[in-house]
Amino acid sequence: MNRSRPLHLFQGFGVELEYMIVRRDTLAILPLADHLLTDRRGRPTRERICGPLRWSNELALHVLELKTNGPVATLDGLAGRFGAAVTEVNRELAGLDACLMPTAMHPWMAPHTEARLWPHGDKAIYQAYHRIFDCRGHGWTNLQSCHLNLPFSGDEEFGRLHAAVRLLLPILPALAASSPFVEGRFSTALDTRLLVYQQNQKRLPLIAGAIIPEAVFTRRDYRRRILQPMYRAIAPFDGERLLRHEWLNSRGAIARFQRSTIEIRLLDVQECPLADQAVLTAVAAVLRALVEERWQPLAVQKAWPVAPLATLLARTIHQGEQARLDDPAYLAAFGFPASAGTAGELWSHLVATLDGEHPEDFQEVREPLRVMLEQGPLARRLLNAVGEHPDPAGLRSVYGELCACLATNRLFPAPSESFRQPAGPAQNNHQPPTRIEP
Q1: Does residue 420 lie within any of the structural domains?
Q2: 104-161 residue pLDDT tens
Q3: Which long-range contacts (CB under 8 A, 24 or more apart) does 240-245 make?
C-alpha cells in the first residue's frame, strides 16, 4: 500500500491471499510457482501484474500469493476479482496437471521431505531464515493465510488502530479457522496454522512475542519496545543484516511503517475469495466501530495487557467459535449484552449489530456470513464432513471438493446457489482426485 501521502483510517485496504499448487489427481503439492511467475523472457521473477491484482512468490515453491495491486477503496467486488485470478491461474496450471488448493494447511503434506524453498532472486533472505530457523517444518512451508493491510496517518491514527486490532485478534480464529488437519489427522485445534506459526521461531522468542502485540501506541514506542529488541536478538545470526527489517516481526499484527499500515496476519485463508471477502468485511466493520469508540473509549481499549488477550486467543485457536469467553470486561469492549458467551455468539452479535447500522457494507457478504455464523468456521465444517478420525479417501474427497469450491468461488458446503460469485470465463473443470499419497 505504498503511496506518497499516507491514507487515513479505512480509506484503503490491501488484501493478500495465499494458495497451494497441487496435482489435480492426487492433490500432492507441486513446486511450480516459478512456472507462473516469469517475465517476458521466461525468466523467474518475484511478481507478475495481472490486471487489478499481482501474483507473487512466497517462501515455499508450491505456494502462490494473489494480492491487490496497491490499496483498494472498498472491499466490495474483491471476490469477483480474486475469483477471476484463480480461474486464470488454474487455466495456466491445467497444462501441468495442476490446480490451486485452498485452506491454511495441506492436510497430509510432509514438509520435511516434500517442501522446496523459492530458489530465485531474493533467495538469500529465505536461505537466511532456513539457516537460522530450519524452514522444513509445517510452521514455514505448510501454512497459507489471508493478510489484511489497513492504513493510518500519524501517531494518533496509529494508536487508535493498533488498540482496536489488539482487542480483535483473540477472536479471529472463531470466524476464520480453516486448518484442522495435519499429516492426515485432526490436530485437536481448529486453527493448526496458528499453532505451528507460534512455534516456528521459538529459537528467538522476541520475534513473535506472545502473538498479541504489546500495548504500544506510538511509532517511537513501537520501535523502542518491539522492533529494536527484535533486531538485537537476530543480530548474532544475521551478520549480513538481511533480516533486520520490520517484516521480521511475526506477531499476529505488525506495523509496516514504511507503507503506513498495520498488517493483520492471523486470518486463515478460506475456501474461496467470496468467503475471504465476508471475513474481511466483518473484521473491518468491527475495527471501524472500535476505532470510533462505539462501545468503549480509547483509553479503556489501550489499557488491555497482553496476557488476557493471549489466553483468549489460545482458546479460539483450539475451539474456534465454541470457545468460552468468560471475561465480562472483554465482552463489554464489544457491547455484548451478557457477562459470558461463546466466541461464535460474540461474532453473531457483532455482525447483527453492524449490519443493522450499515447494511450497505454487508450486502455482498450477508449470506456467506450467515453460513459461517450458523455452521461455524470452515474448520468446523470440514470436521463435520469427515470427522476427527478421517481416512485418506475421506480427506481426498473433501479437499477435492474444496479445490472445486475455489475454482467456482463458492462456500463449502454450498448451501445455496444464490450467493455464488462468478469465477471467471473458463476452466472450472476440476476433476476429483482418484488416489491419495499421504
Answers
A1: no
A2: 999 999 999 999 999 998 789 999 999 999 998 999 999 999 999 999 999 999 999 9
A3: 240/124, 240/128, 242/124, 242/125, 242/128, 243/125, 243/128, 243/129, 243/132
- Has residue 406 been placed in a domain? no
- Determine, yes or no, domain membership for 304: yes
User: In this structure, what C-alpha cell is assigned to residue 113?
Assistant: 521431505
Alpha-carbon distances of 311 from 142, 176, 250, 303, 377, rounded to whole Å: 25, 18, 18, 16, 20
First to last CA, the chain: 39
pLDDT confidence of residue 122: 72
Length of the chain, please?
Answer: 438
- Residue 370 belongs to some domain of the structure: yes
Q: Strand pairing partners for 47? A: 56
Positive/negative CA dihedral, 260, 265, 271, 277: negative
Which residue range(s) make up the domain with 89? 14-393
How many structural domains does the chain have?
1
What's the confidence (pLDDT) of residue 3? 52
Residues 200 and 260: their CA atoms lie apart, in Å, by 27
What does the alpha-carbon distance between residue 225 and residue 232 come to, in Å, rounded to a whole number?
Answer: 11
172 contacts 317 by C-beta, under 8 angstroms = no
Q: What sign does the dihedral 131-137-140-141 (CA atoms) show?
A: positive
Reading phi first (left if > 0) and then psi (alpha if -120 to 50, else beta), residue 340 is in beta
Average pLDDT in the chain = 93
CB 338 within 8 A of CB 358: no
Q: Tell me whether the omega of the peptide bond preceding residue 107 falls within 30 degrees of 0, making it cis.
A: no
Question: What is the rounded distance in angstroms from the CA atom of residue 137 to the CA atom of residue 199?
Answer: 10
133: domain CATH number is 3.30.590.20
Helices (H), 223-364: 228-234, 273-291, 298-302, 306-319, 328-332, 343-357
**How many Å separate Cα 333 from the centre of its chain?**
24
